[in-house]
Write a structure and sequence with these properties.
Layout lengths: L14 H12 L3 H9 L2 H14 L5 E5 L5 H6 L6 E6 L2 H13 L6 E5 L12 E7 L8 H11 E12 L7 H20 L5 H11 L4 H9 L2 E9 L4 E8 L2
Parallel strand pairs: 1-2, 1-4, 2-3, 4-5
Antiparallel strand pairs: 5-7, 6-7
């Protein structure tokens, strides 16, 4: 299963290649744009995920689509033995590595270039896996989720923070206006890659959310699947476990 939305409609290369190129292009000001687009609320949402992960007391954590390492750095508060941040974009990882180094977390956090649909790790390697605003960029969603299930230890926790769609008035209308007009405008004003800030809301709109994504997780062998809507449904946290 894949989401058929690409950043660059005038190019014929694969979605995965285009997404990699896009994040390389916007890596320099990604953190700045992220804070503006979410009004900084995403930091509060990430803290909720960190708290969920902390309750399971994991020793080894994998953060997929780690980007510039925000989640990986926040997860360091849990004091696990090891955190691996994986991303397909070299540009994003370079920014992340600098942030990790500045915070003196080099010995705890390893930043790895890799593909979420072909993870370079052995089976049953991690106690916990997180993905923050990244699963909607998987070229093959089912394959990516199957890979996550493979590298999780039996009983391990998987938590996703991802955009979703408000369904009630007036939040539905406000969200659509923000996505269709405000985010592309911010892209024009502050980013050298305007296509990226057309793609991001388009991919969010195309992605299955709520119970639809819960069912996809169940189909891919996850259990005890739950989701928590955030900001009237603008984003959601999904929590699931690998079967013991």
């Amino acid at each position: 299963m894949g989401i058929d939305v690409k950043p660059y409609k005038d190019k014929n290369n694969s979605r995965k290649e285009q997404v990699t190129e896009m994040f390389d292009n916007i890596s320099g000001n990604y953190d700045f744009m992220n804070r503006i687009m979410t009004f900084g609320i995403d930091v509060k949402w990430r803290k909720k995920v960190v708290k969920m992960i902390a309750e399971t007391q994991p020793e080894k954590i994998l953060d997929i689509a780690t980007g510039t390492g925000d989640f990986a750095i926040m997860l360091a508060e849990i004091k696990p033995k090891k955190i691996v941040g994986l991303d397909i974009s070299k540009g994003m990882l370079e920014v992340g590595k600098e942030k990790v180094k500045e915070k003196g977390l080099d010995n705890l956090i390893e930043m790895v270039l890799g593909d979420s649909e072909n993870l370079p790790f052995e089976d049953n390697s991690f106690d916990a896996v997180t993905v923050g605003f990244g699963v909607r960029n998987f070229e093959d969603l089912d394959k990516g989720l199957q890979e996550i299930n493979r590298v999780l230890k039996p009983g391990g926790i998987f938590v996703v923070l991802e955009t979703s769609q408000p369904e009630k008035f007036p939040f539905k209308q406000l969200y659509k206006f923000h996505s269709k007009y405000i985010i592309p405008l911010l892209g024009k004003l502050f980013s050298k890659d305007q296509s990226a800030y057309q793609y991001l809301p388009e991919s969010a709109e195309a992605f299955p959310y709520g119970e639809a994504f819960n069912n996809i997780l169940r189909k891919n062998e996850f259990t005890s699947v739950t989701n928590i809507p955030l900001l009237f449904g603008a984003s959601s946290i999904y929590k699931a476990y690998k079967k013991k």
